[in-house]
Write a structure and sequence with these properties.
It is built from 14 helices and 16 strands. By secondary structure, the chain is of the alpha+beta class. The strands form 4 sheets. The chain has a 5-stranded antiparallel sheet with strand order 4-1-7-6-5, with helices on both faces. Strands 10-9-8-12-11 form a 5-stranded antiparallel sheet. It has a 4-stranded antiparallel sheet with strand order 14-15-13-16, covered by helices on one side. Helix 2 (42-124) runs antiparallel to helix 9 (417-464) and helix 13 runs antiparallel to helix 14 (573-599).
Length: 614
């Protein structure tokens, strides 16, 4: 016969199995409400701990992937920026090298051409300066201009004419001009005649105060040397023939231009070339009303150690930068700085270069300050003139070239790699998270099944043992396998939980209750009827035991064994056992009478024998 539980949580189960209603003792005592089994809170605590761990792991992964994604994006952007900086550094170095070489080449070519003009003019003429001209000047200037690296630069020879040479110079101009006019018309393919140019040629424009409405005003008197615009290339810049203004400037005095006059003073004193800036109207289509800044270069023409003339060159910076022929120039800002600090000096020029196109931005520094650290700076022109030889109040500039990138150039180095690599990192995180949650789902399902098993085992142990004993069994089981402790809580079945629990209780009372006549009665009954009897009687005894603080040890057949004073010490153990025995005897009579209808006659003849040992 199986053991009957005295744990209150089993009462309702026993009643369900027997199909009988809850037994009420005729004693009229109030029984405590049955206490349902409560699963140990360890499962909830552990589940909460697991949930916190999962949240911590996920948060850590999220922070990690955010950091890695941000770091990946920044590293890729830094790589792009590094490539951009390195590329522009190389491009800027190439541009500055080309500019410095071209500027040096221009000055070298002008110097060589001035020497050639001096020797050529002397060889072809029996006269001395200023009464000379260079034959085929247009053709020779075209050849030398190829060394400048710019298209159709404006060149002119300006001999130094003293005041006393006025009349002779006027006669010489009218005599020699038709010759080189014809040479220039033929070489340049102009749709004009020598007569047209001669009609517009006035040798003494420099003697007059001004030119108004293409007519000459009252002549003035020469007070010093002048620089007449004598031979010029191209003869008619920008057109195929003479215009109404035409060559009224053919013999124009360069010194009427203040910038040129200052350069003449410098070159005449130092016997070296000089350069300056001049503001001129922008003649490009769509640029009406705007100004550009060009440079004028004067190179002394020497004869026997004396300055006899000047070779004049107009350097158009726009054309200069448009013909750099450097591959990869996109969105580059060029800043030219003038070292001269005199009043009214043009200090800064800015140009934008985009391939073969260049644009003048103005007399200011037009670069974006955020690219200050990427500047490529180099001195492209330093004539190294002796400051002591330069007239007071004048200055020959040292030109510094500064190159800066623009957002347009930076955009060409931007790729989708940072976003792509970052997306890959995030995708890896998402995939890892999905695997993590999927794994967690299966582990959680396994843990729930395992936990259900543990709770069922705990319920069984709780039905057999008091709470204090159960807890001690669990604690002792921690030394071995927890599963072994649950499956073999007494430690005697070969488990690893340790030695069996054994305590000494000196103050206890044991009660033995035996059903008299049970053997004969049971032999004439069906097993189900025997089970109903025992379950009903022992269920009622369990309630009395609970009420009187008596601990049921076991039931062996029809014998009910219980004890008072353990597992919790109780000074009233003997009294409680006596009261328990009294109630059990009384209840036995009541139950057998009620069950006689169901279980047959002579059921009420059964009696209860009780033995108490203290």
């Amino acid at each position: 016969m199986s053991k009957s539980s005295s744990h209150p949580s089993d009462w309702s189960t026993n009643e369900s199995n027997t199909g009988m209603s809850h037994f009420d003792s005729s004693s009229g005592a109030d029984y405590p409400e049955p206490v349902a089994y409560v699963a140990p809170d360890v499962a909830n605590r552990e589940q909460k701990a697991v949930n916190r761990s999962k949240i911590l792991v996920f948060s850590t992964l999220l922070l990690a992937v955010s950091g890695v994604a941000a770091a990946t994006y920044m590293l890729m952007k830094d790589e792009e920026h590094g490539a951009f900086e390195a590329s522009f550094a190389g491009l800027g170095s190439e541009i500055s090298t080309v500019v410095r070489a071209k500027v040096g080449q221009i000055f070298s070519a002008v110097d060589a051409y001035a020497i050639f003009i001096a020797s050529e003019a002397k060889a072809e003429s029996n006269s001395s300066w200023p009464f000379v001209y260079v034959s085929d000047f247009s053709l020779k200037s075209e050849k030398i201009a190829a060394l400048f690296g710019i298209e159709r630069p404006i060149l002119a020879i300006a001999p130094v004419v003293q005041a006393e040479e006025k009349d002779r110079w006027a006669s010489y101009v009218l005599e020699a001009a038709p010759v080189w006019y014809q040479e220039s018309i033929d070489n340049e393919g102009l749709n004009a005649t020598v007569e047209e140019y001669m009609n517009l040629t006035t040798p003494f424009v420099h003697y007059y105060a001004k030119v108004e409405n293409e007519a000459l005003s009252v002549p003035t008197t020469i007070t010093g040397p002048v620089l007449p615009n004598w031979q010029r290339y191209p003869l008619q810049p920008g057109a195929g023939g003479p215009s109404s203004r035409g060559n009224l400037i053919t013999c124009y005095d360069f010194q009427r231009v203040s910038e040129v006059a200052d350069l003449f003073k410098i070159s005449n004193s130092t016997l070296r070339p000089s350069i300056g800036f001049t503001r001129l109207p922008d003649s490009r289509p769509g640029k009406a009303g705007r100004e550009v800044v060009d440079s004028q270069i004067l190179q002394p023409i020497m004869d026997n150690g004396k300055v006899v003339g000047m070779l004049w060159l107009r350097l158009k910076w726009l054309e200069f930068f448009q013909n750099l022929h450097v591959d990869g120039i996109i969105g580059t800002i060029v800043v030219i700085r003038n070292s001269c600090e005199i009043d009214d000096a043009i200090r800064v020029l800015s140009f934008a270069i985009d391939g073969s196109h260049a644009d003048f931005l103005g007399e200011f520094d037009a670069h974006d300050p955020k690219y200050d650290d990427q500047v490529v700076s180099e001195v492209v022109l330093d004539l190294k003139l002796d400051p002591e030889q330069i007239p007071e109040g004048l200055c020959v500039p040292t030109l510094t070239l500064e190159l800066y990138p623009t957002d347009e150039l930076a955009a060409t180095f931007e790729t989708s790699k940072p976003a792509l690599y970052t997306t890959v990192v995030v995708a890896i995180f998402v995939f890892t998270s999905l695997v993590f949650f999927l794994y967690d789902y299966f582990v959680g399902r396994r843990q729930r099944k395992f936990m259900e098993r543990i709770i069922k085992q705990d319920q069984i142990v709780s039905d057999v043992f008091p709470t204090a004993i159960r807890d001690r069994l669990y604690e002792s089981g921690q030394k071995g396998s927890q599963d072994d402790a649950l499956l073999d809580p007494l430690g005697g079945g070969g488990g690893t939980a340790g030695l069996p629990l054994a305590d000494l209780f000196p103050e206890t009372t044991i009660v033995f209750a035996d059903i008299a006549g049970f053997t004969a009665w049971a032999s004439a009954r069906e097993p189900a009827q025997v089970f109903i009897l025992l379950e009903t009687i022992y269920g009622a005894f369990d309630k009395h035991a609970y009420r009187h603080s008596v601990f049921k040890v076991e039931t062996v057949g029809d014998c009910y064994v219980a004890v008072a004073g353990l597992p919790e010490p109780d000074k009233e153990h003997a009294t409680n056992v006596c009261r328990f025995a009294r109630d059990c005897v009384k209840t036995m009579k009541e139950i057998t009478v009620k069950l006689e209808v169901t279980l047959g006659p002579d059921t009420s003849d059964l009696d209860l024998r009780v033995g108490i040992h203290r």
